[in-house]
Fold this protein.
Amino acid sequence: MKCLRPIGVALGCTMLASGAMAQLSITPPAQTPPAKKEAPKPKVHSPVAKKPTPKPAASATPKPAASPTPSPTPTQAVDDPNVDLVYGAYQRGMYKTAFDLATVRAQNNNDAKAMTMLGELYANGLGVKRDYVKADEWYKRASDAGDREAMFALAMMKIAGRGGTVDKDAAVKLLASSAKLGEPKAAYNLALLYLDGQTLPQDLRRSAELLRMAADAGSPEAQYALATFYKEGTGVPKDLEKAARLLQAASLADNVDAEVEYAIALYNGSGTPRNVPAAVALLRKAARQNSAIAQNRLAHVLATGAGAPVDKVEALKWHTVAKTAGKGDPDLDDILADMSPEDRAKGEAAARKWIGNNVK
């Protein structure tokens, strides 16, 4: 089972039956449980040389130097509809500047985006002291003005009980309004609530619809979750080709779970033409991103030579790293049992180095 955490709130997770637990057709891990048919629970130029300037003749009267044109200050362009200096300052980490500019726009122009920015700054303590009550107030004003991002942020605060008490009913309404306005994060989180069946009655079809909305808007998390729906036939007709396309899209956006799933699909030719070299490359990438499942599968490939040249030293490294993360594999223990003491020492040393440098 794979844990999908809601976007935008550090709470628990909803469990989703993960195809990342699917097996390569080579030796499958013994402890991997079979997938259940019941509804799964789911868990941001070269410089151009200038020509030399000729010196003036000695008799020529020198011209006074031109006065430099002053650079516009941030406040001079606040009302320029083509320049969003508030967001620009935020992106550059100039949070106090973003706060000052957003305050002007919110107070003078009733700018909903500026209000949302103030909520964001207060909620995260950026440029100002963290204050969930003030964040809630600004998000509420922006939400009432129709800003979909503020609706989503306010919903997440109400789910977490920040700035007030937990209010899941209000959060659901805000998520629904935000999703209706096209906010993919709201659609994704609302889909998880429909899938989980605790805050809302479980509705797999509605969950799939919301995931599709978020996936079409480019959410890698939604693409991965919806791919699992298509793979298992949850809320949608089973369709391995659609599942593979969604996994490919999510993996291109560096979603690690999707990289593992898509690698397995490529290795087995499930819903997509078989491409073992591409599959192994993706497993390597995901293994380096600390996916224990990818590390385990890569160790199998390297230990058996089923997709890459045999390299038992490297296989032992990844097997040991995966085992440290709780992904033990008795089959690999057996396959690697005949290694020479020298090779075993190399593999174990490589694993210790990786763990020391990468595992927090």
The chain is about 55% helix and 0% strand. Residues 341-358 form the longest helix (18 residues).
